[in-house]
Amino acid sequence: MNMYEKIYSSHTLKEINNKESLIYIDLQLLHEINTPTAFDGLRRRGIKVRRTKQNIATQDHNTPTRSIDSIKTDKKRNHQLCLLEDNCKEFSIKLNKLGDDDQGITHIIAPEQGLVIPGMIIVCCDSHTSTMGALGTLSFGIGATQVENVLATQTLIYPKFKSMKIEVINELLENITAKDLIMFLINKYGTVFGRGYVIEYTGSVIENLSIEQRMTLCNMTLELGASAGIIGVDDKTIEYLNNTCLKEIITPETISKWKQYNSDNDSDYDAVYIINANDVDERISWGINPSQNISINQNVPNADSQSSNIEIEAINEALDYMGLSKSVKINTVPIDHVFIGSCTNGRIEDLREVADILKGRKVSPNVKMIIVPGSMKIRNKAIEEGLDIIFEESNADFRALSGCALCVGLNEDILPPFSRCVSTSNRNFRHRQGYNVRTHLASPRVAAASAILGRIGSPNELDKKIEGYGIPLPLSNVDTDQIMPAEFCYNTSKNGHENSVFGLLRKDKDFILNNPKYNTGNILIAQEAFGTGSSREFAVWGLKDYGIECVVAASFGDIFYKNAVINKLLPVILPMTIIYKITDLVLDKHFIEIDIHRQVLKIKESSFRFSIDRF
């Protein structure tokens, strides 16, 4: 049997027909939005909750994240929170109340409180309940009417879904996350691909994921259209449970039982797919559903290149809402907000990744970055590890309370119309984060990098450095005719100009490029007015072909400067007083390090700041 069949069959109390069964529910999670009618139904029928200890509630969806006091003046939202408090008190259900140490997003606090055990069936009035499938459970969302049924009977009539296996082989590339993987799958297969299925994830890549990364994967399985995502129990699962469950239940017998929740080697599935992890790259959504996502380095689609009228209409509709031009390069799009949080990416590992990228850097002045921990325990852990200090020093807003926040749009964390937000949540539907707000889904790594860059971008862009040795060129007014004489401009290719650059000057045996001392140099140290004159781009091509990665000068010709940026030849402008100092150090063969993002040139013990808008 496969894992899904093992759990479903072990909980089947009665087969209703060949499609549905009455199943036992081990745990039901409750929150303030979809439960009031369920409790009202119990009152009308004069029924008590069947098993109070197997129903746990939390306040998370419409809760504030700045201050508890703000909810007191918000009558509409406060009413729902108070209703949950009253209902839990009346029916003797434990409530994780706003501000309590155990409060947080329901799919996050249940595992961290040790409530989630392999082999369980768990339900909640929230579609992303599937998150807990990462711990070897069958977990899925239900509606308010079904919530009432579970409260009353601790059972549910539920369909027997088909089973699908997605095996992910090879290895994810460095710094590629579970969020990138699930977004890749949603883009590849679409949002209805998994309808009628429970998806089991297997393979070497899944085995290498941390439990929290597995939770992200199972969480967004819903966006593939499936009812649930599940992952078998292994040593990582046991280690996680050792840290969360009561010690008295961790026995050799229970561990042996938990490890049975894996698919047998001869298991059958209704569908099997094999994914090469090497194909997965950093992802970012561009449209209005999670399948509309692309690589961070791609252009958004152009409807003109589509043959299907349905596809043309879908692309144009999405681009219109998102305020994007067709074929625009996605990593050039400016943003004004970044949201870190949600049941998808609001765990401690996510916050650590964000802090790692923010450390020593500043959020762009054009961006407001909001970080909301998925639970109060996570917030306290972040403070214990000093992450809050990193967030504060980076000018990020680390919120005082946990909750769903900007993921769902049911609370005070609503963005102004036409804001553009890179978000670590799970859905980029229209108006989800506020009226006409444009949401771009991404991993915590991409979101943090985008906050720093002030536009959609990759962490790889933050690490851009040029390192090497300088070549002193103590000449002013070096024009493009000198850099690339006209007689060498007959080459119709962008490449092959390395022997032509400074072609006439190199006829002088004493010219600097003829000195073997500078054969390994890659940073040219010039003086005033470098690259003036002709607009010939050959000058830049020639320098690049020769191996020059950066030119430092007191000023540049405007056209040369633009051509340099376009061709990724870094033009650094520094005062002549500093250039004299650098030239002296270069003559002594000192190593140069240029941090492009921080815009700092370092040589020996000296550091010099420069400015460049975009490179």
Describe this structure in words.
- The chain is α/β, with parallel strands linked by helices.
- 30% of the residues lie in helices and 18% in strands.
- The chain has a seven-stranded mixed β-sheet with strand order 23-22-21-20-24-25-26. The protein has a five-stranded parallel β-sheet with strand order 5-4-3-6-7, with helices on both faces.
- A hairpin with a 2-residue loop joins strand 25 (600-603) and strand 26 (606-609).
- Helix 14 (348-358) runs parallel beside helix 17 (444-453).
- The longest helix has 16 residues, at 75-90.
- It is elongated.
- The two termini are 55 Å apart.
- The mean pLDDT is 95.
The end-to-end distance, rounded to whole angstroms, is: 55 Å
Overall average residue pLDDT:
95
Main-sheet strand order equals: 23-22-21-20-24-25-26
Annotation field: number of helices: 21
Beta content comes to 15-25%
Biggest beta sheet attributes: 7 strands, mixed
Unreliable residue stretches: none
What fraction, in percent, of the residue positions are helical? Answer: 25-40%
Class inferred from helices and paired strands: alpha/beta
Give the overall shape. Answer: elongated
Instruction: Give the strand tally.
Output: 26
Q: What Rg, in angstroms, do the CA atoms define?
A: 29 Å
